[in-house]
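Researcher: Re-running this chain for the archive, since the previous output was lost when a drive failed. Same request as before.
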Amino acid sequence: MMTVEFAVAAALFAGVLCYAVLGGADFGSGFHDLTAGGSHRGAEVRTLIDQSIGPVWEANHVWLIYVLVMWWTGFPESFAAAMTTLYVPLVFALVGIVLRGASFAFRKYSETLWQARLFGVVFATSSVLAPFFLGTIAGALASGRVPEGGNGDAWASWIAPTPLFTGAISVGTCAFLAGTFLTADAARRGQRALAERMRRRSLAVGAVTGAVVFAGLIPIEHDAPTLWEGLMGRAAPVVALSGLGGIATLVLLWRRRFGPARGTAVVAVAAVMAGWGIGQYPWVLVDQVTIAEAAGAPATMQGLLVAVGIAAVVVGPALGYLFYLTQTPQWNGQSEEEPKRVHWSARLDA
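Model: Regenerated structure tokens:
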């Protein structure tokens, strides 16, 4: 039976899915920036990253604000319990998000090579650390390490098998998703050599990430039995869908079908996140507080649903149009000469 509490929780988790896919691709670009190579070898990859995420990276992180506001308004006591327990990884994640955003902007206006390299390192490193710590928060919640009354162990709550594995999985899925998107973008821009390079990287990252995802199920059985039961029960079809989506993406990348590969990559990542949510249901804090128990006042929950409905009508089309524009050459300034543009690192090194 659909209840107001369930509807609000579903709307909240929809925001988590959007952030995992859109923000995840944004974070994952930093992994490829970090591993692109020196100023000359990595110039093409970094130029592609700047052009691909530049118009949308701020919009992608709106979903984090949405999730936090929905959580503290709709389920305030569980939010307080999580914040007073998991403040260490949360601070690390938020600092990483701030540093990567500032460095991404400052790098473009660097006047010397050492400045550009410094901001580039901060951007890339923060892009890896932020999803890792966000993943540990999810793992701590899912493994029942947040007590109902809050003020749990600030370190043991997230330095444990399930949180650390979910952190690693978060980094891997972000890198895989971003690699698939960047490969398709390079091919769309006519940069065949770069597309081939990103294709090989994405295949390697995808294979490793898939292995980590399914290897992570081993410690979960003993470390988070409630989550394990849900994953092997009602969430099993979604877990299988994530595996099929990942395999389909690898096959499409291998066959150089980059456009469809983006869709299957999104399905794979979204299914991983959905499997976590379905496996954890009906708990907000696993083994501690359910959705119904954590819900705020009925009037507040109803107001949230109204606000979500208005946002869906007003903000949804605007975001959709923004992403459409980023794929349209005449709107994002792309031309036939664009592949010849030189990245800041090559210019400064010249």
